[in-house]
Every structure is written in C-alpha cells, then in structure tokens.
Design a protein that fits this description.
The chain is about 35% helix and about 20% strand. It is α+β, with helices and mostly antiparallel strands and about 140 residues long. It has one domain: Winged helix-like DNA-binding domain superfamily/Winged helix DNA-binding domain (Arc Repressor Mutant, subunit A). It is globular and about 40 Å long.
C-alpha cells in the first residue's frame, strides 16, 4: 500500500494522518497475517512502543484494525478494509495453526450470523478455528 492510499484509509476512518500512523498502516497492509504488537514494533522500529500502542488504540477505536485473540492467547491486529469509521464490513474467519503458531485470515469464509437474545448488543465477533495448516500438515 502506498502513502496516498494509507492517508486515504486513515481519513476514511476519521483519523488524522501523521508520519507514524501512515507508517503503521503501510506495515499492517504488507503483513501476510495478523500481527502481535511486538511483531508490529519490530516492523516499524523507528516508532517507540508507546506511540505504537497509542496508534493501535486509536485505530481500534475508529475501526481501522480488527483485534483478535489467536490460539496462543496473544492479541493480534489486522487492518480493516471497511470504508466506514462506525463498523467493520470485512469480519472474517481466522485459522490458528497449532504446530507453527501462525494465524491466517480466511477471507473467503464469512462469519456465521448469530441471533442474540433480546437485550444483547453485538460489538464484534472473533471467529477462530484451530488446527494444522497445509504447510505443517505436509
């Protein structure tokens, strides 16, 4: 993702573009799988930990990132490709490989709809499947 697209994505989600935020969006866009905060810090080593944390918190608040627990109880972040600040329109299934520890996005599988009882209000869904990925299975 280039800088112009990163800026556009930040603005679409109501976030003021700064050099650090643009760098983080680009890093998240290039990631092949959802990243832990430590993995993201390693990728954007020019940004200190507190700024990475603050930016991720802001991104989460504005629905620019999905936050998910992986199969090893680590918190991971991935870029949302929704076009609104108010909700995520690209929630999808994740797969955690119990052998290699990688978390994969299964974008082609939609999260099943859940009918909640009256009075409950849905904020987010984290749908995780655990097993062995094709690479580890071979």
């Amino acid at each position: 993702m280039d800088e112009a697209k990163s800026i556009e994505m930040l603005l679409e989600h109501g976030i003021r573009p700064t050099a650090n935020r643009i760098t983080m969006v680009k890093a998240l866009a290039l990631a092949e799988h959802p990243l832990t905060m430590t993995e993201l810090e390693d990728l954007v080593d020019t940004i200190d930990k507190s700024n990475v944390f603050r930016a991720l918190s802001l991104f989460r608040e504005h629905h620019l990132v999905h936050v998910l627990q992986d199969g090893a109880d680590a918190v991971r972040y991935e870029l949302c490709h929704s076009h609104e600040n108010g909700h995520d329109d690209d929630i999808h299934v994740h797969f955690y490989c119990e052998r290699c520890g990688q978390t994969f996005c299964l974008n082609e599988i939609a999260v099943p709809r859940v009918a909640l009882p009256e009075g409950y209000h849905l904020h987010t869904i984290n749908y995780l499947i655990k097993g062995v990925c094709p690479k580890c299975r071979d």
